[in-house]
Amino acid sequence: MLTLRELQREFFHSMVGDAAPALVALIAGDGIDSASRLNIYRNNVWTRLTEALRSIYPVVCELTDQRFFYFATDAFIRRHPPTTGCLAEYGADFPAFLATFPAASTLQYLPDVARLEWCIHRIRRAPVVSPITIADLAGCGIDPADIRLNLTPRTAYIKSVYGVDRLWAAHQQPSSPEAMLLETVDVRLQVNAHSGIAIVRLEPATWEFRARLANGDPLGSAVSRAMTVSPRFDTTLALASLFNEGCVVGRHPARGPCCMSSLAARGASGYRNTRERISALTAYRHQCNPRQCQPASGNDC
Question: Which residues contact 5 (CB under 8 A, 6 or more apart)?
Answer without folding.
Answer: none
